[in-house]
Amino acid sequence: xxxxxxxxxxxxxxxLIVLVLVFYTNSFLLAQxxxxxxxxxxxxxxxxxxxxxxxxxxxxxxSELDVFGGLGYNLVGVGYNVGLKLNIPSEKRTQFYLxxxxxxxxxxxxxxxEESNKSYYGxxxxxxxxxxxRRYNIPFWDFSVILPVRNASFKEDQDYYxxxxxxxxxxxxxxxxxxxxxxxxxxAEK
Length: 190
Description:
Helix content: 10-25%
Strand order of the largest sheet: 1-2-3-4-5-6-7-8
Distance between the termini: 58 Å
Largest sheet: 8 strands, antiparallel, barrel
Strand content: over 45%
Structural class: alpha+beta
Order of helices and strands: HEEEEEEEHE
């Protein structure tokens, strides 16, 4: 039996997940009889899908697929994220979705040590919930739990500052993050 290093196995699993999402999305797009109205959404929120504390702009490509971009302030500067949301069909007030994005996913900020302030970038994956109003599909609240895939540079810097006895009060980043936002419709295709 051939030995496969762990990093290669993780790459294979990641590729498999992406392929499953692409086939899942395509099956919904092909199964639709009528083209849904494409909508553009805007949102205000906090979390990495909003670039920190900021705005998110989204475009509904189909009833199951949205593309989005977020831009905001992440405590050390401008943060951004771009990605896709795969909506799980639902006729109820609540609708779950899976998300994949790329952009800032961690920061290090140390008071009185500004040269250490830095944003780190990489992919992140999440599970979210859209909570629609009682009478309409829009506006809606958006809540998500996000798993950032942090790079080696962040991990090295975080370990360095956590173990440096000259820095007090440094806390390590949480492995899972949350975000919350309020979204409203900007435009719809007629």
